[in-house]
Amino acid sequence: MEKKPYVIGLDLGGTNSVFGIVDKKANVVASVSVKTRGHGTAEQYVDDCCEALKPIIDQVGGIEKIHAMGIGAPNGNFYNGSIENAPNLEWPGIVPLAQMFSDKLGIPVALTNDANAAAIGEMAYGVAKGMKNFIMITLGTGLGSGIVVNGQLVYGCDGFAGELGHVVIDRSEHARECGCGRKGCIEAYCSATGMARTAREWMAIRNTPSTLRDIPSDQLESKDIAIAAAQGDQLAKEIMDYTGELLGRTCADFANFSSPEAFIFFGGPTKAGDLLMNPVRKAYDENVLFNYKGKAKLLLSELDGAAAAVLGASALGWEL
Amino acid sequence: MEKKPYVIGLDLGGTNSVFGIVDKKANVVASVSVKTRGHGTAEQYVDDCCEALKPIIDQVGGIEKIHAMGIGAPNGNFYNGSIENAPNLEWPGIVPLAQMFSDKLGIPVALTNDANAAAIGEMAYGVAKGMKNFIMITLGTGLGSGIVVNGQLVYGCDGFAGELGHVVIDRSEHARECGCGRKGCIEAYCSATGMARTAREWMAIRNTPSTLRDIPSDQLESKDIAIAAAQGDQLAKEIMDYTGELLGRTCADFANFSSPEAFIFFGGPTKAGDLLMNPVRKAYDENVLFNYKGKAKLLLSELDGAAAAVLGASALGWEL
């Protein structure tokens, strides 16, 4: 039986919840955005979202045209469709969000974490088309990962596999504190936030002049570093090299796990292109085990940043 | 159609090639051992092995009673049934050993690396029965690993996934050289050989008295350290603690990848039991991400060491 013509994708972020209605050719034919915060309970959030969805669902011919819904959300657990103890959301404990949307909309709903949704999106629509083994690395506030083995997302025993951002790369006393409560996680160095930390730390330690010094410290973003590096700012270039080296050699360690045919990088810092990726590739090649040399491609996602997360979530919906 | 009653398992090691004929209840009903070296070519090795196998095949009623053969071998590639560039074997390049045995014996033959075979053996006969996500760690001359995700061995894009022994745990200038040509791999610290290196290094650096000093340096084995530790030797106990801590915290990093329900340890050093495993468990609990706390069991293989490798290989044969 042919599937109904549309799925709903939801990219649930700490600030915005972006819904898209997506057709079989990956066109986002309608979309709506709802603030994630300020609804009080999760029940009210779902009610408010469904209210906001109504016009765009009607626009495509009503709910009977919608096959299913897919959600990408922080701390999302694919196995039970719940968001569990998400530090950046307002809802404490375990929220069975897939079930709640399914009850309200009357369609099947699947949920996974945002980096896994990105990996599914790359398989369905992006550079991972046809790949059976790859690792998705998303660089944002955190460093997320979605791991695909034998064509399947790796969820592990509990639905929470693929937290490569919390691999420890510095066990010294100088290691940075991570949001997870431990120290030295790669997330604290190579996420967008981690890059800004590097800039603040180096500006404090060094006297090198830099245009980054003109930006108020707490407003400095990875984007500023990329722009400065592109303009030839020495300190910014060194930050790109440092970030790339840490990422590249850590990915070389990850190759020992699943020997992927590609690493796919996504997120704000990747907009720097070769300024980041050249040092990543150099460090990867220098550090990877001889068995794996020359095998994995280090790629940038080609999906449009704004649509990619919604597309990833929608691809999960098509799997239902 | 019911499968024929026996499979052949081959544990191909650097020194000995141990063949076992195994029934459906995991009894090794007959076995024979052949030296791995000294046959000249791989062709001659296969011929000599088949000659040695003939009497035990006849013993169970001839080759028509044998369903298949499974081989566990260093640098074994499951995808093409070849041994590829194995530094500890006499045959250079790529040896299509599965095909060669299959041609000679007239039965299907599968091959994988030794640690993967051990993982398959644990799933079929050992403590991993019924598990869908676990990581096998084998401690011997090297540190091998077999990773199971969604009930399947992780082979990666090239058949060589699961080389966790080559995850780098020390990037300092003091890092130990590893057999792979790089420095700081966990194999250089936590394999049986790595433990002996720790003993030699610490005896050189420290003045602590130890019964280990009575053993000629190049004859010292991990077994001696375990025995000395059990007898209360302080230096030996500290070596067990150090090895366990490195293993435990590195396994905590591995959890970020596949969130396994268990780590299963196998090999000589595990005979030390709690002397090794208590520090492993302590370091694992102290280092693992909060998401995973209390989830993975840290287990010892319960398969008999001598038979386990043959049983693992035979389990691969049953999959054909």
What does this structure look like?
The structure is a homodimer of 320-residue chains. With 320 residues, chain A is of the alpha/beta class. The mean pLDDT of chain A is 95. In chain A, helix 3 (114-125) packs across helix 9. Chain A has 2 domains: 6-120 and 307-318, ATPase, nucleotide binding domain (Nucleotidyltransferase, domain 5), CATH 3.30.420; 130-301, ATPase, nucleotide binding domain (Nucleotidyltransferase, domain 5, 2-Layer Sandwich). A 5-stranded mixed sheet of chain A has the order 3-2-1-4-8, with helices on both faces. In chain A, strands 11-10-9-12-13 form a 5-stranded mixed sheet, sandwiched between helices. In chain A, a hairpin with a 4-residue loop joins strand 5 and strand 6. The two termini of chain A are 13 Å apart. Chain A is built from 9 helices and 13 strands. In chain A, 37% of the residues lie in helices and 20% in strands. The A-B interface holds A 132-133, 147, 149-150, 152, 154-168, 171, 180-182, 249, 253-254, 256-261, 287, 289-292, 295-296 and B 132-133, 147, 149-150, 152, 154-168, 171, 180-182, 249, 253-254, 256-261, 287, 289-292, 295-296.
